[in-house]
Amino acid sequence: MMKICLGLAGLTGLTAVAAADQVVLSGEHQVLEMSAMKPKSKQQIASFSKVCPDDELSVVIDYATSDNEPTSALSFKIQFEHKFLNVVDAPSSTMALDDCPIAFVSEAIKLDAHLSYVTMVCADMGSKKVVPAKQPGVLAINFKVKPNTGGGMVNIVMLANPKLSGVGYKYKEVRPKKTLKVLASCDRDEL
């Protein structure tokens, strides 16, 4: 575990302290943090958690800049294995995308026989600062675990797009990967 010193004190939704080791970021960063939960129970999902067929999962991305300043661009994707997961409704954002000349949140797009992704982009190519300094819930995706998969391990991965960031910023991804164990069938009492 590590401690990340980013000047994000008081920002709800973004973790500034994780534990013993310390990493101090130099330069300006756009920080993306991924969390996952079971929406019905509000239970947080850690990596290597067990999930059952038909479970619903909500993946949320929180965003902030290390200097608490708005930027001109934000771009990232959430990649997942469509053998195990369905996107159950359109991904949503708490950000006002109308302010972005280039803006979209994609539906799930199949990358290949195993992987799909959802992309979010908000950018102004003229460097106008259209992305706020802080945006909890900048993207939310609701998944449902598919039945009859035979079980296995599934990854949900957040990937920042380093080619489309705010001018002078680099991305920092916090908890960018969740690995879940999909059970072939479930006795809810064993979870």
What do the pLDDT scores average to? 84
Going by CATH, the architecture would be Sandwich
Low-confidence stretches: 1-23
- Structural class given helices, strands, pairing? mainly beta
Can you tell me the CATH class? Mainly Beta
Order of helices and strands: EEEEEEEEEEEEEEE
Sheet with the most strands? 7 strands, mixed
* Helical residue percent band: under 10%
How far apart are the termini?
26 Å
Word description of this protein:
The chain has a single domain, classed as Sandwich (Immunoglobulin-like), CATH 2.60.40.680. The protein is built from no helices and 15 strands. It has strands spanning 2-5, 21-24, 28-38, 43-44, 50-51, 56-65, 73-81, 85-87, 102-105, 109-110, 115-123, 134-145, 152-160, 169-174, 177-182. A hairpin with a 4-residue loop joins β10 (109-110) and β11. The chain starts with a strand and ends in a 9-residue tail after the last strand.
Give a brief rundown of this model.
The protein is mainly beta.
Write the layout of secondary structure elements.
Elements: E1 2-5, E2 21-24, E3 28-38, E4 43-44, E5 50-51, E6 56-65, E7 73-81, E8 85-87, E9 102-105, E10 109-110, E11 115-123, E12 134-145, E13 152-160, E14 169-174, E15 177-182
Parallel strand pairs: 1-2, 3-14, 5-15
Antiparallel strand pairs: 3-4, 3-6, 6-12, 7-11, 7-13, 8-12, 9-11, 10-11, 13-15
Annotation keywords:
single chain; 191 residues; mainly beta; Immunoglobulin-like; 7-stranded mixed beta sheet; 6-stranded mixed beta sheet
